[in-house]
Design goal:
25 strands; 448 residues; alpha/beta; 2 domains; FAD/NAD(P)-binding domain; 6-stranded mixed beta sheet; single chain
């Protein structure tokens, strides 16, 4: 009798998996709702992913773009934050299972676990070509880049030095463009006076893309301007090629009918993405359809077919816009999806079941190439160069979660703009002297 009464008085339980843009937006928009929110993430912080490349290239430190989830939601009394890694789900019993065996029941589940890097079935390449999806990977890339210049300074032959000073970025989407532009500025400005034996300005930076143009998601005119901007920085753009192998010595790729090899000791991966292991498990448990990237096909209200109590947000959701085109895996889609899911829950609790379909309001796309160089498609207006860079600067500062971080990032960017200095040029992780040939340089140590 007592247990039944307690059950009747229990508030609607909302579990949110993932504290990224989508999950955090959902939690914040449920602040005044009559629900109990539990946000579970395997990390205790929210990471501002669009600026990850600045960690990788030494402009910012991880703490500048990360905010503790408990701190962000500390004043939200109906929300608790838990550290945990969801590995399984029972959609019929409405239960989420964590890696440590703990389980949590829910009335509504919001899944915003994001995506992971796809090497298109060539996972062995990960050892030689790190991607940019986590803080550890970002600092590993920073290690790899800075270590390359150090090893080139100690090279015994010109051929060896040239291999260390050759950098290859695979994938010319926004991440690839950002990395290549930042790398060019490091070589030509930041490090130009730091070495005695080598000349960093002679570093060769190559951006490889399988498609016929860079920034394939952008309009063609902005794609062409972006390529012109990055080329002006000294980056070589190679399009229409397919990478066939990556190892310690460099990259093998196919161009037309010929196979070519490129000696490069530093290869960075900015290729595609695929579903996380939990996303794959969720699709299996709900028997949901997925696209070729493993994203779950959702209803117009972002729920899984036959499971109206499960919302899928951000990179894991395969959703369409009003024209039938797939929504991109960008922060704005996730944030608007989080706000929509929260609104849907509030409407359902108030008895209103007539929920309009999710409508993504596309504010535009932006990609930064370098100092005062960017391209932007804002509400259909195409902008490039300094104006686009200023817009990019302003918008990214606004969306950083914590005010203190905004101030620190703004100051750091100011110094960098005036001096080209990058204050976070630290080689961390495995000591550089631990590896003679550098084959392990840049890989973070495994946890015990």
């Amino acid at each position: 009798m007592f247990e039944g009464t307690e059950r009747m008085q229990q508030k609607h339980r909302v579990i949110i998996l993932g504290g990224g843009f989508g999950g955090l937006a959902a939690a914040k928009n449920l602040k005044r709702a009559p629900v109990e929110v539990t946000l579970i993430d395997r990390r205790n912080f929210h990471l501002f992913q669009p600026l990850m490349y600045q960690i990788a290239t030494g402009s910012l430190s991880p703490g500048d773009i990360a905010a503790p989830l408990r701190s962000v939601l500390s004043k939200q009394k109906n929300t608790q934050v838990l550290l945990g890694d969801a590995v399984d789900v029972d959609p019929d019993a409405r239960r989420v299972i964590l890696r440590d065996g703990a389980s949590f029941e829910y009335d509504t589940l919001i899944v915003a676990t994001g995506s992971q890097t796809s090497y298109y079935g060539n996972d062995s390449w990960r050892e030689w070509a790190p991607s940019l999806k986590s803080v550890e990977e970002a600092t590993a890339i920073r290690h790899k880049i800075l270590y390359a210049f150090e090893r080139a300074e100690r090279a015994e032959t010109e051929v060896e030095a040239r291999a260390w000073l050759t950098f290859v970025i695979v994938g010319a989407g926004a991440t690839g463009m950002e990395l290549s532009g930042a790398l060019a500025e490091i070589a030509t400005e930041t490090l130009r006076h730091d070495f005695r034996k080598i000349n960093p300005t002679e570093a060769r930076i190559i951006l490889m893309e399988g498609a016929p143009r860079v920034l394939g998601a952008f309009p063609e005119d902005l794609s062409a301007k972006a390529e012109k901007l990055v080329t002006r920085l000294g980056v070589e753009v190679i399009k229409g090629v397919m990478v066939t192998n990556i190892n310690a010595d460099g990259v093998t790729f196919k161009r037309g009918d010929s196979i070519e090899q490129l000696a490069a000791r530093t290869v960075l991966w900015a290729g595609g993405v695929t579903a996380t292991p939990f996303g794959t498990k969720l699709a299996e448990r709900t028997r949901a359809e997925t696209d070729r990237s493993g994203r779950i096909t959702v209803n117009p209200d972002l729920t899984i077919p036959k499971y109206p109590d499960i919302f899928i947000l951000g990179d894991l959701a395969s959703a369409m816009d009003k024209e039938g085109k797939p929504l991109p895996g960008v922060a704005q889609v996730a944030m608007q999806g989080g706000a929509y899911a929260a609104k849907a829950i509030r409407m359902r609790l108030s008895g209103d079941t007539e929920l309009p379909p999710f409508h993504y309001f596309n504010k535009g796309d932006m990609a930064v190439i370098g100092r005062a160089a960017a391209v932007a498609n804002i509400f259909g207006f195409h902008v490039s160069g300094l104006p686009a860079w200023l817009i990019w600067l302003f918008i990214h500062l606004i969306y950083i979660v914590e005010f203190q971080s905004r101030v620190l990032v703004f100051i750091q960017w100011g110094f960098e703009y005036l001096t080209f200095s990058r204050g976070a040029r630290l080689i961390t992780g495995e000591a550089a002297t631990d590896s003679v040939d550098g084959s392990h340089a840049g890989r973070p140590k495994r946890e015990c």
